[in-house]
Amino acid sequence: MSDPAPAPIQTRAGLVAGHAHGALTFYRDIPYAAPPVGALRFAPPAPVAPWSGVRTASGANAPQRTRTVPQLDAAPLIGHGWAKGDDYLTLDVWCPAGDATARPVMVFIHGGGFVVGSKNASVQDGASFARDGIVYVAIQYRMGVDGFLPIPGVPTNLGLRDMIAALGWVRDEIAAFGGDPANVTVFGESAGAMAIADLIASPLARGLFQRAIVQSGHGGMTRSVPVAQRLVKAMAKRLGITPDRAGFDSVAPGEPLLDAVEQVSLPTTRLDLREADGREPVFGISRFVPVHGDDVLPLAPLDALKQGAGAEVDLLIGSNAEEMNLYLVPSGVRDKLNTAVGKLLAWVVLRKSQPRAWSVLKAYGMGSGKRAGQALTDAMADLVFRWPARRYAEEHRGRTHMYEFEWRSPRFDGQLGASHGMELPFVFDSLATCTGNEGLCGTAPPQELATRVHAIWVQFARDGSLPWAPFDRDTRTVYRLAAGEAVTEPPMPAAAFLP
């Protein structure tokens, strides 16, 4: 016998239906902005048109094309690809059943390099947070060309503007679902975490959340508008259109556009996105990222933090110990570089993003006994993720705590390790989604660790408390989640090569 359906909830735009799941209630695909189509496609998020009756779920998500990872089931992390439909600026709400009010709220922003991903990916099932008394919200946003390409004549950072609109919806509506709009924690992983780090620095997001958890992210992956517009021209050339709003308006969201996104994203595509200092801040991982120099991000995030932006936000930020293993181990790139010509190839790979590539590789042991592929993997883990997260923590003027997730997956003969994305099933207490012969975590991940990590996230959302001391540039306290201990962490070799 199924659980009785809960009564619909009245929002400002209309009634939304909930679905009972035991002691929890799930509300799916609630629109926080109008569908981004027609004249609204390249416009800031617009108010939702009111509806009559009870709203039904659309099931759509942002246009995207997912990629397979050799011998690894990535669907739990990024979803199953594009579910077509116009009405995808939506969010889900999981909440405990009952009449309790003023519950803590957690808003999750998914990752995926700003080009793939969905709130529906199974690893981030919000039921675990609702089970523990949290009102959980997961959002979708514009990605790729529509969300993060600074097309002349189009407002910049539309994807970030979508997130700000969703957080405005939470402020205005979440009390009806039992949540406390004055106790909101925003959290995300990878691109979602990068976005949150940007929102902390944005004057347009001020006051929309009180706490933030940044998982494998930081504020270092933004581009200046002039550099990012090189990507606009490259995309327009491939599409045979003018590099402006009229040109991109002529190409509907769909396969030809996704083909062009895929082509410009190939590592073999000749596209110079280096800034004036010779660095490419995204290291080729994604072409599509937020830009600074507009009203959303007037300054690069680190510069904004130095001026006190986001000081009112309590911050938990961290990284995984071996982030780049996800990119370089399953693909076989690391092992291909562990060859006689590996040193030269490793230099070629890194030189595209880092002007002092040879010095970086030497600092990470190449030429001193460490094979070139491993030196590159270790260096990029620190350059791309770990050290920029520490730099963000150093510059944040508010209360800041830092973690490191160091549990090592046994996948790929133990070589996947504490890779990018590995903390997600532990944070969400959703190990079953990533367990198995092709699962991220292998066949027997430790439930005790998931129980403990999840509880840390829940407690931080409740009242901001954490079981270790804050981080600052002098004490450098980092909490190792698997070991359950706080350590003093020295600066990394990467510190000499990044601002």
Automatic annotation (TrEMBL):
It comes from the Bacteria. GO terms for molecular function: hydrolase activity. SUPFAM superfamilies: alpha/beta-Hydrolases. Keywords: Hydrolase. Residues 9-465 form the Carboxylesterase type B domain. It holds the Pfam family COesterase. Gene3D superfamilies: alpha/beta hydrolase. Its EC number is 3.1.1.-. Belongs to the type-B carboxylesterase/lipase family. PANTHER family: CARBOXYLIC ESTER HYDROLASE. This is Carboxylic ester hydrolase.
